[in-house]
Amino acid sequence: MVVCTLHTTIPTTTHLGFTQKNQVIFYNKRPCFKKTTSLNNNTIITTRPSYVITCAKDGTIVIGLAADSGCGKSTFMRRLTSVFGGAAEPPKGGNPDSNTLISDTTTVICLDDYHSLDRTGRKEKGVTALDPRANDFDLMYEQVKALKEGKAVEKPIYNHVSGLLDPPELIQPPKILVIEGLHPMYDSRVRDLLDFSIYLDISNEVKFAWKIQRDMAERGHSLESIKASIEARKPDFDAYIDPQKQYADAVIEVLPTQLIPDDDEGKVLRVKLIQKEGVKYFSPVYLFDEGSTISWIPCGRKLTCSYPGIQFAYGPDSYFDNEVTVIEMDGQFDRLDELIYVESHLSNLSTKFYGEVTQQMLKHQDFPGSNNGTGFFQTIVGLKIRDLYEQLSAAKSAAPATAAKA
Questions:
Q1: Residue ranges of the alpha helices (H) in 300-372?
Q2: Cα 384 off chain centre by
Q3: What is the pLDDT of residues 172-205, one digit of tens each?
Q4: Alpha-carbon Rg of the chain, whole angstroms?
Q5: For the purposes of burial, counting CB atoms within 10 Å of the CB of 153, is it exposed (0-12), middle (13-18) or buried (19 or more)?
Q6: CA distance linking residue 94 with residue 77, whole number of Å
Q7: How far apart are the C-alpha atoms of 189 and 100, rounded to whole Å?
Q8: Residue 265 burial (10 A CB sphere; 0-12, 13-18, 19+)
Q9: pLDDT tens, position by position, 245-287
Q10: Assign residue 38 a region: left if phi > 0, alpha if psi is -120 to 50, beta otherwise?
Q11: Residues near 344 by Cβ (< 8 Å), separated by ≥ 6?
């Protein structure tokens, strides 16, 4: 079944920013218009030039990605959208400062767009963007809910260049909606709309090293200003952002290496993929033997490893009182084409063919983290989300047929 949205080409909106619409339902590609009433009380049974139909097959699936600023959300989004195919680009003909990315299958919304205060307003009130008081969770909930139900919305735009709130943009319901930012799991109403959630958990040591690299090299900031910025944000991060990881279905945790004693450069990383057990349509990836506790050093004839080498670990654990499965990688790859050796020892990857993880990694070998566990586990999670989407879509398609037989 395909659910379509019928809306005017010049949208009229409610106070919540919804586009008024009528619903059209297609069975086996033959249109069967649901009986609806237009504004002038006439029943619409055929399309007219003043209307546009957009379709989201079996509704919209919503994925939440939470992380602090500068923790790799953008790179993860590029890896995720690549799994589904098609380039993710800003809305055509829209605001050049839009934060939204749209591909054939996915729409990625930056939750900064739901800031209720612009940069000046936050400064006047003495709050950071991490503070819930600087964000409109009511509007966030209503619009994510509307998109999940197949309704177009007029979403605000937060302009990162000017620090102002720009006029809204029209967002159509996609097959997969990704909401990424600081607060996708903060509000319980928004959290309940998520079909799957991920948290990027970067340790303070690694976060500091990354921020220095980005802000000093790319933005010309001084070391002192970077330290001050991190310290200023830390209380709000600890209070409002970090606690969200307890709700995540998957957590990618990035830590300093344990392979180099007293390492302070942050170039070699230890990365954990923490996967919650019992999540519908999601089977955790495992190494060698499901449920066992394993430590594996794969370097040798089949995997090139320079100092300090690579070490994997796998086993069951608990995380915020939830049963989880954890895979850990410490170290980095020298040759990505040899990654297929590691891939062949992992199960439940949800790949379409042998070597797909390696292919995806090679495809984006210039992305940050491609030689270590951050890129490796981001790619794996992307493939798991594709599998979850396909299972959810199949279940929703089967529901009408089951109901009809009953």
A1: 339-343, 356-363
A2: 12
A3: 999 999 999 999 999 999 999 999 999 999 998 8
A4: 23
A5: buried
A6: 21
A7: 22
A8: exposed
A9: 999 999 999 999 999 987 766 789 999 999 999 999 999 999 9
A10: beta
A11: 354
